[in-house]
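Running low. Got one?
___
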Amino acid sequence: MRCSGTIDGEFDTYKLYLWRKAMTIETRLSKKTYYEQLAPEGKENPVQTLGAMLFEEHLKEDGDATDVRFAQGEVYFHYKDYEAAIFKWENITGYFEQWAVKNRADAYMELGMLSAALDLYKSIETDSTVLQVETALQLFSLYLQQEKQEAAVSSIKKAVRLDPDYQNIALIARAFFEEHEDWDNAVELAVNETIRTESLDWADVMISYIKRGLTDRFEPSYFTDALITLNRISAEHFEELVLSLWDSYEGKPGYMPWLLHFNEVYQTLDGETSHSWRRLSKRYEETYLHLISGRYSVKELERVLPAFLVNWLKVSDSNHAVLSSAAVLAWNDLFPGSISEETVYQAGNLVSWKQPDSAAGMEESIKLFDAVEKWSLENEVETDAQTNWMVEELLDLSTRHLLVAGSASSGKSSFINSVLDEPVLGEESSTVVIVRDADETEIREVTVGEDSRQSAGRFIEYSLPSAFLRENQLMMIDSPGFNSRLGGRNEVHNYINLADSLLFVLSANAPFTPQEAEFLVRIREQNPGMPVHFLLNKIDTIYGEEEVRRVYEDTEERIHSVFPEAKIFAYSSHYKSSQQVSRFREFLQMAVQAPGMGSRVEKLLYVIRNTITDLFDKRMQHERSLEKSITWNEDMVSKLNGALHQLEDLEKEKAEDISRYLHTVKEEIRTDMKVKIPELIRSCAKLVREDSDFGKIHLQLNEEMNNRIQLYMEDTILPMYRDSLHEWIASSHEDLKNSQAFLNEMANGFNKLFGTERIELECDFRVVDDWRRDVHRMTSGVQVEKHNILLRHTPSQLLLKSAGKLINAIAQSKSVMVNRYTQYIENEDYTELTESIIAKFLLPFDVFESGIVRDVNLFFDHPNDVLKRTVNETHAEISAKQSKLLEMKNSLPQFRESLTMFELRLRQYEWMLLGSR
C-alpha cells in the first residue's frame, strides 16, 4: 500500500505501529535484506550466524526455522549461490511463502532460466501491494528479455496502477514508453498522473505530448478530468492545455466534437477571474470566424455555438468583449432562446457602453462584402453593377453625397443646371443621374439588370469639370420626380442609402404638399438618421417681398411641424447671381454633413443586407428560369418531333409521287413498244414477193426486221422517252422546290422560337442534277441487239427455209411460198421477242427507277439530320438543366445556410457599430 503522508484519524497507535512494522519488513523483503534483521550487520558472518540459529531451532521441540531458512536464501542469493538459495526457499510456508516463490523466480532469472521464472511469477497470489508491484516489475524485466513488448507493457502498467509512487515506477514507465515510442500509453500515463498527483510537471509532459500531435486518436472527453484538475490548480496551465488540444483537433474529424465537449464542460467550471484569458479569447474569435465562414451546416453550429458563445463571453478580454458580445446578440437574433437571457443581457450591456470602432467596423464590413461577392460568384448569383458601384462610392470619405429629390413640377433639373452653371440635365427623366466632378466630361450608363431598357435597371453617371462640385466636395444624385409615371419614387428609395443628406426641391407655387410630406415621412422611416433639408425653388414667380416672406414663413412652419431640424433655402433657377450661389454654398456647408466613418459603415451594412436578400431572390429566380427553360425545351422537342414526322411523311409522299410518275412514263413506253415492235415485224411480210430469192429471203427479212426495230427505237421511242423523262424531271424538280419552300418556312418558324438562326433545312438539289445526267446518258443513243427473228430453229422456220431452197427450182410454186411466208410473218407470236427487246432496252431505266426512292431520301437527308441533331441537342439541354436544377434544389439548404452565416456576421457588425443606438 502507499503512504499518503498523513494517517487517517481512525488509526490507533497500535495499528500504526503494526503498519509501520509491516512496511519495514516488506521493504527488507523487497531488497532481500530480511536476513539483516536476524543477523545484524557488524557481527560475525551472517552465514555462520544464521547457521547457528537454524541449529538452535532444530534442537527445540516446537522450533520453527522458516524465517531463518528464508534469510539464509537471501544470503546465498547475494553470494550468487542461486541453487542453494532456491533450495532454501523451497517449502517455505506462512507469511514468507509468496515472497519465497518470488525470490526463487528471481534466482531462476539470474540463472537465465526464464521459463521457470515466468511460471513462478505467475503463480504468486498475495494481498501485499509491495509484492504485487515487485512481481510486476520482475515480469516487466523478464518480458523485455524475451522481447515480448505487449506483455512488458501490460506488466509495467499493472505496476503503475498498483502504486505509481513506488520506487518512481511512473517515471520508469514514462521513460520506457517514450523509448519505445508507445505514445498512447505515454499519453495515458501523463493524463492519469496529472489528475492523480495534481503535479504541474506531469501537466507539462501531457501538454508536450499534445503539442507534438501524439493525442489524435483520443476522444475529447478523455481529457475532461485533466481539464477540471488544471482549471482548479493553475489557470495558466489550464489555458495552455485548452489551446494545445484546440490546435491538435483543428482540421481533423474530432474538431467539432472537441468544441462541443469542451464548451459543455467549461460551462460547468468556475473560471479564474483574476487570470487574463487573452490567448484563449483570441482563439475563440478566430474559431468563431472560421465556424461562420460557411464550412459548417447550421445544424452543426446550433449544437456547438450556444455554449461556445457563452464561454467566449466569459473569457473575453477588453479587446474582444464587444466582438463576443455582438456575436452572442447576433446569434440570439437569428436563433432566439438558444442562449440564456442572463447571457444576452450581459452581452447587451457590454455592447451598449463600448464606443464603436468605426475604422475596424469599416474594415470588417468590407471583408464581409468581399466574402459575399466572392461567394456569389462561386454560386453563380453575382452581385449587380449598381451594388458594386454603390459600395465603391461609400468607401470614398472625401466626397459628400447629396440626393436631390422633388416632384416633377418642382424645377429640380433647372436648379441643378443653375448651380452647376452647365446644362447638364434636360427635362425630368425616369433615370437617376449621378453628377460628379472630373477632369474631363464623360457620360456613362450603368446597367443594373439584364434589361437595359428598364429605367429601374440603369443609371447615368455624368462626370464633368465643375468648380462648384469640387469646392464643395460634392456629388449630386438627381432622382426622378417622385410622382413620375415610371416610378421615380422607388428610385429615391433605392439611392437614399447612398446619400449623406437629402435636399428636397419644392415649387414656391405649391410648396410642401400633403403628397410631398407623406413621401418624405416614408423616406424618414426608411432612414431615420438621414438629414432632410429643403430648397424653395421658383421663388421668382412670386410677386412682392411681402408675399415671398409669407410663402417662405408658411412653408417653414409646415415643414418644421414634420421635420423640426430641417433648413430651408429660397432659390430662383432663373436668377443668375453669384451672391445667390455663394449663399447656397454656405447653406450646403451648414446643411450637408461631411461623411462620417460610422455613418458610411452603417450605410455599407445596409447595402450588404440588401445584397444578401437579393442573392436569395436571384437564386430563386434562377431556379424559376431553369424550370421555365426546361418546359420550353420540352415543348420544343415536341414541336421538333412533330416536324420530323411531317418531314417523314413529306419524304415518303414525294418519293411515291416521283417514283409513280417515272413508272407511268416507263410503262407508257413499254406499252408502245409492245404494240409497235410486233407491227414492225409483221409489216415486213409485204417484202415477200414472187421474185424474191426464197433461198435467202429469210436472211433478208431478218435483217430488215432488225433494221426497222432499230429505227423505231432511235427515231420514235428514244425521243419520246427523252421528252417524257425531261417532263418528269421538271415536274419532280418543282415538287422538290415546293418541299424546300415548306421546309424553309418550318425552319423560319423554329428560328423565331429559338431566337437565333439555329435551324437550316437546306435540301440536296444535286440529286436533280444527277437525274439529268443519268437521263442524258440513257437517252443519248440506243443500240438494239440484232435478234434471229426468222433464223430460229422452230419447225415452221425449218420448213420455210427448206421449202424455199426447193421451190427456187420450181417456179410454179413461188406463189405458194409467198402466201406461206406472208401468213407465217403475220400470224407468228412475237411476244417473247418483244419482251426481250423491251427488257434489254428498259434495263438501265429500271435500275434508274429503283434508285429514285433512295435519291429522294438523300434529298431530305440534311433536314432530317438537322432536326434529329436539334432534338438531341435540346434533349441534352433539358438533361443538363434538369441536372442543374436538381443540383440547385439539393444545394438550396446549404445556400440558405451560407446566407444565414452572412446574416449572422452582418447582425454581429450591426450590434458592434449600432448597438449603442
